[in-house]
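worker-03 picked up job from queue 'complexes'. Input manifest follows; two sequence lines, order preserved.
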Amino acid sequence: MKELVKKNDGAGGEMMQTFLNKYVFKHFLETDGGEISLSMADDSAVMNDVVFTIDGHTVYPLFFPGGDIGKIGICGTVNDISVMGAIPMAVAVSLIIEEGITSETVENVVISMKEAALEAGVNIVTGDTKVVERGGVKEMVLSTSAFGKRMPELDRNFELAGKRKTRWLTDNNIMPGDKIIVTGTLGDHGMALFNFREGYKFESPIQSDVAPLNHLMREVVKKGGIASAKDMTRGGMANTLNELSSKSKVGIKIYEEALPVKEAVRSSCGIFGYDPINIGNEGKIAMAVNPEMADEVLKVIKRNKYGKDAAIIGEATDEYNDVVMATEIGGMRRVDAPVGDPIPRIC
Amino acid sequence: MKELVKKNDGAGGEMMQTFLNKYVFKHFLETDGGEISLSMADDSAVMNDVVFTIDGHTVYPLFFPGGDIGKIGICGTVNDISVMGAIPMAVAVSLIIEEGITSETVENVVISMKEAALEAGVNIVTGDTKVVERGGVKEMVLSTSAFGKRMPELDRNFELAGKRKTRWLTDNNIMPGDKIIVTGTLGDHGMALFNFREGYKFESPIQSDVAPLNHLMREVVKKGGIASAKDMTRGGMANTLNELSSKSKVGIKIYEEALPVKEAVRSSCGIFGYDPINIGNEGKIAMAVNPEMADEVLKVIKRNKYGKDAAIIGEATDEYNDVVMATEIGGMRRVDAPVGDPIPRIC
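worker-03 finished. Artifact:
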């Protein structure tokens, strides 16, 4: 029997890893190359000292509290470049539009991309537009690609981080003892979209946290001691920490009471049976930092407007092989990567 | 009344220029930058000596005689980098898949991308996969981005081309007297898709010409004297030559009898009332060459397997402001850019 593609095959969780390994990576590994290659499945690739990334965006609806598909498109690629330890230079935009939507909708997405690019200080230098017949896509999908160059402060950052596997802030660079920091509250983006879709358009105070984090990343690298950084998108913090743990071959222990979660997100998750650690952000980063530098790095993050709620939430450890959480009631439980994304089409 | 997006707004012709100027470029010009910038709307952008491009692909059906959406994805970006005078280094792939298609379909597209990348000698280094609910996209769309580096032979090429506006093979680089070369037969890709869609699946001998042309471009640049190059996709040769003419502010005069067109394409166009000069290719380039070098460059092109049918089809001239064609019956007619694409979703 033929296998059909299922929604969770593209949801960012474990099923997606299986699907990609079976049908995609197997073949693309034959054409792989570069210093940080496809086989490392990191946030960006690096070749010839060019840091390079792409993301497809299928957010629905296109506009939601706190953002829209255009803002996600720019911020997503800007953040993927930044968490490698690079400065995003240029973005390329591929728009695929369904005929019959209003030109105003297209223009509003474009304006939003422009504003995000201006805030990040990146140039939108090239693009492509296709219009398809009704049903060809639902309203609009877009893909954004970006390239960046190495932050000049990265060498000094690693002097303060100690000897590491790579000279970039890769997922495999964590060592036991590193402190784990998240730059702000968990699950804002996913719950903002979920509440909006479910019809709580006016009652819910939850806004998406979508934001360009390149300035924040530059500031922490200037401070120094960062080993690894990753933006927490689909599958939320749980998915991100599991990827970091398995690629670095190190356990990660976190403390539930240390997790920053907005009260509105916590209560909305409670009502619908979600756990904020599984819900995606679009403006938060998890990073691993040399423990001696962790407090100072935290201060730097908190000074940035996108890092006010940052917290040290745990540490890397060789006591465990995967991600565990000390709960508020005194227990210890394993944190698995979500199988699929509980909230689809959030990015 | 609100304006709605029409299919021809994304078809590569004049309507698309109007749409893009009104709703997209106006805003993105505020974030523009680099040596070859968005405002030049060339095949690729150049910034920090990195050549950078993106394309969205909405080919339907996904598989057709001579190729598939995956092959178009790789070849399209490889060619966009190559016609600037650059060597494509790395490709990034964004797959957006409709749930419920077979995994085999995805895998076959992936295999085809791999094969095209191996032939071109580029690395697929990063990617992103999203799966959307039924109706989110029709089967699959994909976007491909690539970056490249300057061909080392480009300076010598321009010594042989004479003084030009830019040091890349840009659309605005043509001068009166340049010979215009096309690297092969016109309209193969569009008519292959059209015949296949109309149900002439087995009778029609027409195959898409989709191919990676980076090796061919490198060979001609090594020979030298190329001023400008552009791959002829949506809107065919007519659209491409009009873009070259208007950006270079020079007339282009071509000779109908010199145009290479396969007999099957000519007769199929005749039946359906199409003109092969308006029909897209995916493996052909138009270029402008110093007249003293044109015969030698033509020889080099003809030695490449994708250039056997290449021909000198005319020249740039200051006698006209736009594109004119000396017809086989002895007349002279203006060649306009098609308003939309006569055959939609060909790339």
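worker-03 released lock.
Chain A has two domains: 32-150, 154-334.
Chain A touches chain B through 84 residues (CB under 8 Å).
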